[in-house]
Amino acid sequence: MFARQFFRCSQQPLKQSFRSYSSETPKGKSLTPIYLAVGAAGLAIGGYRYTQTAGAEPKNREKAFTGGDQGWVNLKLAAVEDLSHNTKKFRFELPDKESVAGLPVTSALLAKFVPEGKEKAVLRPYTPVNDEEEPGYLDLVVKRYPKGPMSEHFHSLKPGDTLDFKGPLPKYPWEPNKHKHVVLIAGGTGITPMYQLARHIFKNPEDKTKVTLVFGNVTKDDILLKKELDELENTYPQRFKAFYTLDKPPKDWTGGRGFITKELLKTVLPEPKEENIKIFVCGPPGMYQAISGNKVSPKDQGELSGILKELGYDKEQVFKF
Predict the structure, then answer these.
(1) From CA 240, how far away is CA 236, in angstroms rounded?
(2) Helix (H, G, I), strand (E, B) or coil at 41
């Protein structure tokens, strides 16, 4: 149902959209002194945060997840926070409070549980949303889907319960300035790997990558991590821009109405001919089908199709989480 709802076209243009952002950095002479001051302050704050974090974290912290033949790691649930009517954030304690999860950016963890009366385990990948260098815990954002065995199990957990995890599961190898401009196209909880990447980029003062986010949801309450995304946008206004569109917007909504459309992406994305760009896509199956085509498997990206193909992007410019 969500997939069908998510891509109904809207005839109303997105008021936030403008091509100038997607194709070039705003020129200094067109900015007000206040705008420049905010941008400079944001860069200084970002650099300070990164320096403080990097300086405070010992380089030899033990990693809770090392991959390979490590096997499953049983973690205890420490706290649960409601984010929306059907989405919660789950904080799990790491075995050692001084350890870190050990996940590189753009990687995930595999969660496992065996339903009562069943022999076969249910497995699902999840991307932590907390900083990779924060010791002692990891945070997962999980949306409850009707008849979704893993998401329903997550939402039944209480503090003190445990769950098995394994990883990391690497997705896309990232290094600072690997691309000049990245685009994050997300739907629903597909925002989690996107936020992980954006946060990692902006915490590193050496990484100058520009980031554009296009985030589609059903209602305003469904916009996950909005506070964190707003903080990034306010701190780095010349390098990060977020565009939101809702299928069921409130009357006072000034963002996009309807689904992520060809017209919207054509307006806010960098041109296909622009050098060294990368477009990441993550969301429900219907979104993949409409935007980029689905993956064949975790190791096979499949062919590029959908809106991105129609707009002239090629397979090498797109990565499907």
Answers:
(1) 6
(2) helix
